[in-house]
Specification:
Length: about 300
């Protein structure tokens, strides 16, 4: 089994997978998204990012290799090291490194590793097997045949009137018939217009209900997906903190700096001391948060800490 396959299997259970000597693949939960251009609803997913500075061996990948055909930790580490040397050689030669199911990496002109995640991969277990759902646009016309039928009826009535007029109908009766016809056509058009509007609203509501029910049944989500956005997903409660700033501009600058490095940095608002809080990333369980904190403290910021926040 290739090394990227081991990483993919681990991503379904963990949010941070470290490849010793190479970097860490981070998984971040993203909510369902509505693609208005393609009229599609995409299920919730885990998006990936890569952090080359987080490369200290935490033993997770080694332990996973031991569950396969690898007989010892030393052999597992040798396989990882050989793979890392091969990957680094590809990047040093100026070529892009494609990792199946994960994405592609390449070195920029500034010698920084840039990562582009595979868009079709989804490592969120609750969304496994789900694909994008087509969403009908609100302004889709469905009543064209009704208007066409109404137009034919109008033409037939006009022809009958012409025949009656040619047979010698009195002029006042002719004008009265035309007035009645005009009133009839107006009322008929207004009636069909109201019917069309009701049918369109009903069809749209049925489509929205079908989409919401489908996603709820497949993903076991209890939140309604009729209103887009937002869509409720699991809330990240354990945040690895980068700092707290008295001036908001400094917090904004720090977030931009961390995101440029590939971190999923977020602004958590003010704390009880009126300081603006900035994170490296958030997690749904404390184990992943503690693991990520250790990596950050070793390679990035020894003063980082974990904040448990109910949202």
């Amino acid at each position: 089994m290739q090394m990227e396959s081991h990483i993919q299997e681990l991503l379904f259970k963990h949010s941070c997978i470290v490849v010793p000597g190479f970097g860490a693949f981070m998984a971040h939960t993203a909510p369902a998204a509505h693609d208005t251009g393609a009229n599609q609803l995409h299920p919730p997913k885990k998006t990936l990012s890569f952090h080359p500075r987080l490369n200290h061996d935490d033993g997770l990948l080694v332990q996973h290799l031991l569950k396969g055909k690898v007989s010892s930790s030393a052999e597992a580490k040798e396989q990882i090291q050989a793979t890392v040397e091969e990957w680094k050689s590809t990047l040093e030669s100026g070529n892009a490194l494609f990792l199946e199911g994960l994405g592609s990496l390449k070195k920029s002109a500034l010698e920084r590793i840039e990562f582009e995640a595979e868009v079709h991969s989804n490592y969120l277990p609750s969304s496994f097997g789900l694909s994008a759902i087509e969403v009908l646009p609100k302004n889709q016309a469905k009543a064209a045949p009704v208007h066409e039928s109404n137009e034919r009826s109008f033409q037939l009535t006009t022809a009958e009137e012409i025949e009656e007029d040619e047979a010698g109908i009195l002029p006042w009766l002719k004008y009265a018939s035309m007035i009645l016809l005009l009133i009839s056509v107006t009322l008929t058009a207004f009636y069909f217009y109201n019917q069309d509007q009701k049918k369109n609203r009903l069809a749209q509501q049925e489509a929205n209900d079908a989409i919401a029910n489908y996603v709820q049944q497949e993903t076991f989500y209890e939140s309604s997906l009729i209103e887009l956005p937002p869509v409720e997903v699991k809330v990240e409660k354990f945040h690895v903190m980068a700092g707290a700033f008295r001036i908001q501009e400094n917090a904004t600058r720090k977030i931009a700096e961390l995101r440029a490095k590939g971190y999923d940095s977020q602004y958590l608002g003010k704390n009880q001391y009126n300081l603006h809080q900035v994170t490296y990333g958030g997690f749904e369980n404390p184990k992943d948060a503690k693991k990520f904190l250790s990596l950050i403290q070793e390679s990035e910021n020894a003063d980082a800490w974990i904040l448990a926040k109910n949202q």
